[in-house]
Amino acid sequence: MSKKIFIVIAAYNEEKSIVKVIKNLKSHGYKNIVIVDDGSSDQTYNLIDKQGVFALKHPINRGQGASLKTGIDFALLKGADIIVTFDADGQHHAEDIKKLVDPVLKGKCDAALGSRFLRKDSNTPPIRKILIRVGILVVWFLYGMKLTDSHNGFRALSRFAAQKIDITSDRMEHASQIVEEINKNKIKYKEIPVTITYTDYSKQKGQSNFNSVKIGLRMLFRKLMN
Q1: For residue 80, which of 10, 174, 4 has the smallest C-alpha distance?
Q2: Residue 177 and residue 3: Cα distance in Å, rounded?
Q3: What's the CA gap between 45 and 213, in Å, rounded?
Q4: Are the C-beta atoms of 133 and 124 separated by less than 8 Å?
Q5: Disulfide: which of 7, 63, 104, 166 matches 170 by Cβ 3.0-4.6 Å?
Q6: How many CB atoms lie within 10 A of CB 74?
Q7: Is residue 127 helix, strand or coil?
Q8: Pairing of β 111-115 and β 33-38
Q9: Among residues 139, 211, 145, which one has the least CA distance to residue 172?
């Protein structure tokens, strides 16, 4: 029996990119697409509601972590075997999904984590690259996990991993919390090279460098308090 693969996307004011993202996913054969509109003030929800996908909506903006939590829980209720988290701004490539899903399907891991630095053609902005490298050291120091990419939202989770990982951080800190949950629950993981394409639009939509620093400090604080 074929496994049910669900794509979960958190979307906030993504009317300029979301239809193109959906059509690209469908062109690669992905039909179970869950999009959580996170209280957008533009036409995002109206657009996704016409695309033949599972369109969910938060009445207020809660953050990307909360949106992914909503989407993952919904996918689990629908019987998802594998859940792929995917960005709404066009940074991720649908053709990379198969590479992420394959090791999970074959039982080699329960969490396949995308890494932009396992490829040599990454166009990551220099300052962002430095901050991610610092994040890698923080993850190694706190959890003993040797990752090459500490804050990548492109990942594939088995049903087991998705049920074990408890996302309580509503906003961008969720990505670090997922790594923490993988470590805490001893979930077998594997890094997979993926392409992250930075455009003027995606850089505008992404989190600020200052916010990245705050996330790192929160990780340290949470670890010290446990």
Answers
A1: 4
A2: 27
A3: 31
A4: no
A5: 63
A6: 17
A7: helix
A8: unpaired
A9: 211
DSSP H or E run through 106: none
Q: N- to C-terminal Cα distance for the chain? A: 42
Residue in the structure block whose two tokens are 């972590």: 65
Return the SS3 of 45.
Answer: helix
- What pTM was computed for the model? 0.86
Closest CA to 189 of 158, 220, 222: 158
CATH classification (class only), 5-225 = alpha beta
C-alpha 109: how far from chain center: 17
Per-residue pLDDT of the chain (226 residues), as tens digits, is 689 999 999 999 999 999 999 999 999 999 999 999 999 999 999 999 999 999 999 999 999 999 999 999 999 999 999 999 999 999 999 999 999 999 999 999 999 999 998 876 666 777 777 777 777 777 777 778 889 997 889 999 999 999 999 999 887 788 888 998 999 999 999 999 999 987 766 656 655 555 655 655 666 665 566 6
Q: Are 35 and 46 in contact (CB under 8 A)?
A: no
For 71, the 3-state DSSP assignment is helix
**Alpha helices by DSSP H, 78-208:** 97-105, 126-143, 159-164, 174-184, 200-205
Q: Which residue has the tokens 């859940």?
A: 83
Residue 199, amino acid = T
Taking CA 214 as the corner, what is the angle to CA 62 and CA 143, rounded to the nearest 5 degrees?
100
What are the extents of the domains in the chain? 5-225
The token duo for 57 is 């909506």
Residue closest to 85 by CA, chosen among 26, 36, 28: 36
